[in-house]
Amino acid sequence: MPTLGFGVFQVADEQTEQVVTDALAAGYRAIDTAASYGNEEAVGRAIAASGIPRQELFITTKMWIQHTGEDTARREFDKSLKKLGLDYLDLYLIHQPMGDYYSSWHAMQKLTGEGLAKAIGVSNFYPDRLVDLITHNDIVPAVNQIETHPFFQRHADQEIMRGYGVQIESWGPFAGGKNDLFTNPTLTEIGDAHGKSVAQVVLRWLTQRDVVVIPKSVRPDRMSQNLAIFDFDLSDDEMAGIAALDTGKSMFFDHRDPEMVKWLGGRRVD
Ligand SMILES: NC(=O)c1ccc[n+]([C@@H]2O[C@H](COP(=O)([O-])OP(=O)(O)OC[C@H]3O[C@@H](n4cnc5c(N)ncnc54)[C@H](OP(=O)(O)O)[C@@H]3O)[C@@H](O)[C@H]2O)c1
């Protein structure tokens, strides 16, 4: 899969077609969406209008908790595919480790057999849930998309995933700007040394760690900036400086918090 893609979480449906059109024009070829983002149709319109050959694109979407289960997962996959205007997906993810996701996984394994999903994976799985899913199924998730940024670095989780051949993919690479990430002194100093922005330093740090990234921006200048990260390298000292920023905690919420599990489980997306 491409190391660097583009995410469309919290991009309003009416804005998404233009934003994805701009991202494809900037050079992105991997797009990450989800049924729960409510913008799959707009992503699909932008893909169709772009004229880019399908095989050059890498499209990911995700199944929401409400639709877990074997039959419902299959129906939901078909719905997402139709909304996106595609005849196969490059990557289909279980969005959260909640609900009847074992049954979903059975359905998803069949989708790969039929060639309808080139790869299947998961999101927001802590290592215990990931290893359990792997232990009791045939296909190992290709990807686990998890919150990963300078304040929540996931080194130990990444090592476990590496051991099972699961690719780590970062969501929220900039921690959504929380904890003053864009003015962090360590990141700013490293950026200044390379003539790069804090955002570029963060994306370079992640990709240098073999973490796949899917930054989101609605601004074309930032889309281009976030792509220009492969013309410099961070030194071991710089990597160590960033490693020291880890708090080991989420900047958003804990997927193992019972109140959050209850809230997410009750969230309806259509
Ligand atoms: N699986 C999951 O549960 C999950 C959860 C969250 C996200 N995701 C995926 O991960 C993708 C990325 O995460 P995210 O969108 O939450 O957060 P993010 O990429 O960490 O941060 C996006 C924020 O950073 C700003 N930004 C982007 N580039 C910038 C730059 N070069 N300089 C300064 N500011 C910049 C954006 O503002 P502007 O748009 O105004 O530029 C936006 O406010 C999502 O779009 C989605 O596809 C998945």
From TrEMBL:
Protein's UniProt keywords contain Oxidoreductase: yes
GO MF annotation list: oxidoreductase activity
Protein name according to UniProt: Aldo/keto reductase
Pfam family, one: Aldo_ket_red
Source species of the chain: Hamadaea flava
EC number(s) from the headed UniProt entry: 1.1.1.-
All copies of domain NADP-dependent oxidoreductase, residue ranges: 10-245
Keyword Oxidoreductase: yes
Record keywords: NADP, Oxidoreductase
CDD domains: AKR_AKR5F1
Family statement: Belongs to the aldo/keto reductase family.
PROSITE patterns linked to this entry: ALDOKETO_REDUCTASE_1 (PS00798), ALDOKETO_REDUCTASE_2 (PS00062)
